[in-house]
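We include the pair:
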Amino acid sequence: MIRVLLVDDQDLVRAGLRGLLRARFGFEVVSECADGDEVPAAVRWARPDVVLMDVRMPRVDGVAATRALTAEEGAPPVLALTTFDDDDALAEMLRAGAAGFVLKGISAVELQRAVRAVAEGAAWLDPAVTGRVLSAYRATPTRRRREDAGLDALTAREREVLTLIGRGRNNDEIAAELVISAGTVKTHVNHIFSKLDLRNRAAAVIVAFDNGLTVRELP
């Protein structure tokens, strides 16, 4: 059972999400917040596996709440949720440390897949807006220079792992595909994050996407 914290300022939206993330689908909504300022206490109390976070809220928005949450040791991953076709806001969510994003018009099955993937340590970028959000995210020249320089420093194995991260694989799936241990995969992932100055897997997906790694076949 995947434990979910819902964060949205609209009661009807939270009710709808609650209906989609029920026990018979493998989820438990362990707590709800109506604004970002309620998130730290709810996370400490409910200990969710994933936080489904609205971007636009009146007091503390999703970007600020995500930035504060992901700065904490052992924080659960955040999946951004928005009705707004706002590339810059979603890019800011990624910079704040969100593991991915979905639009509120997503189907029930896709929402469940996204929450499950993020809870299991993968990234999830809604394909409906991914291209534009990636462009907004990568608009910072200094970040691109750091990531491009770091890419040259990756070992062949680290590039293979980055390629599979870009294709949405989690650590266990990467370990099975490369026939190495999950612990070794974790070490490679940590090295990739360090060399590329990345916060999480969503940022790694962006780098893999931008450098064409996701469309190449592994040797």
